[in-house]
Amino acid sequence: MEPVKIGLLGLGTVGGGTVSVLTRNASEIARRAGREIKITHAAAKDYNPDLIQGLDQIDLISDDAFKVVADPNVDIVIELIGGYSPAKELVLKAIENGKHVVTANKALIALHGNEIFAAAEAKGVTVAYEAGIAGGIPIIKAVREGLAANQIEWIAGIINGTGNYILTEMRDKGRDFEDVLKEAQELGYAEADPTFDVEGIDAAHKLTILGSIAFGMPLQFDKTFTEGIGKVEQQDVLYAGELGYRIKHLGITRKTESGIEQRVHPTLIPERRLIANVDGVMNAVLVKCDAVGPTLYYGAGAGAEPTASAVIADVVDIVRSLTTAPENRVPHLGFQANALVDLNILPMEETETAYYLRMQAVDQPGVLADVTQILGDSGISIEAILQKEPAEDASYVPVIFLTQRIKEKNMNDAIAKIEKLDGINGEIMRIRMETLG
User: Fold this and answer.
1) In whole angstroms, what is the distance from residue 119 CA to residue 205 CA?
2) Quick check: pTM over 0.85?
3) Residues labelled catalytic
4) Which of 26, 130, 379, 424 is 20 to 30 A from residue 332's alpha carbon, by CA?
5) What CA–CA distance (Å, rounded) separates 429 from 211?
6) What residues make up the domain containing 420?
7) Where are the beta strands (DSSP E) in 49-183?
8) Spatial distance between the Cα atoms of 112 and 173, rounded to a whole number of angstroms
9) Measuring CA to CA, how many Å separate 142 from each of 117, 137, 401?
């Protein structure tokens, strides 16, 4: 039987890893897929041939990606260029040419997945994207297939390694955000422009996809609430620890009676939770279902070979299903295309969670009474209060409140009123809390 021929777009970190892993494990992969899988064509404008094992076995390497997707000898296109364009045009052209597609491009799927999947459905081909979320962790397969018997209640994930590394260093070594970010860039964990990582955009891309496959709805990236970690200070990490919590940058999607919560933000988690102890650049996703209960998926969220592992697993799945009728393949978003429901994504103001509040208060009687009065009038119950000793010659003292669950809009109103008090200095630091119980 003829090998399945792959056209690879991109020979960067993940592309090079894909060539290396597929070459090294070729016989084992063929045994699992039932056919030999061979990268015959590749396109890249810039790559280092000395770092890629097996590059000499590729028949044709060019700088024209569109030439690869147009080649009639290519069966499956792997898109590892990243970004929105020309990735979108290349994927759509590959589909138009009747080719299956594997991609690690979460941004492309989150923003344009609805259009891409519709085109693939019409053409009878598959678009696979396991590598787009949490690197080598097979979370899409787990949610879409392994948990297919369940109603998924919520998903919470550490799905950006850069942010997790920064928060871990701030906690373990008492370092400041900017200092750790600079080191993360030097180590290659963060890009020269770290906006997507530290502002939560990368995590929001991934959460958008997880929400869709969890609840069977179209992709809606524009409705995902996104907040980064740039405002988290070293003192917040310290106070959270004193109160028995750890701060993680979480993506959370939850089904409620009112609609779907879909949000990315720094979050206090009880330190006893397993996911609270996922440190460094590692990723973890916690899925709560009605039948199986909670399941946790942990592993490397990025890197050449971990991500290549997911890319090649998608290729193997496609090869196994080449003789299967399109309507009998695993649906792109886990639910049959005609069964997707346009569920209501809740605005952040309607989301309910608990809160950590840190404020600078004048060290005199009556100030905290005013604060608690405002919280009470807003229907906000206080879980704990931590008042720190003022620094020498300081006029203000740090005060931390932990609250019970309340709608975001109630908390917004309360914070606005508290910040107007004469006894409160500056803005209030607000971090949301989840027990994940």
Assistant:
1) 21
2) yes
3) 206
4) 26
5) 28
6) 350-433
7) 60-62, 76-79, 100-103, 127-128, 152-158
8) 40
9) 20, 9, 38
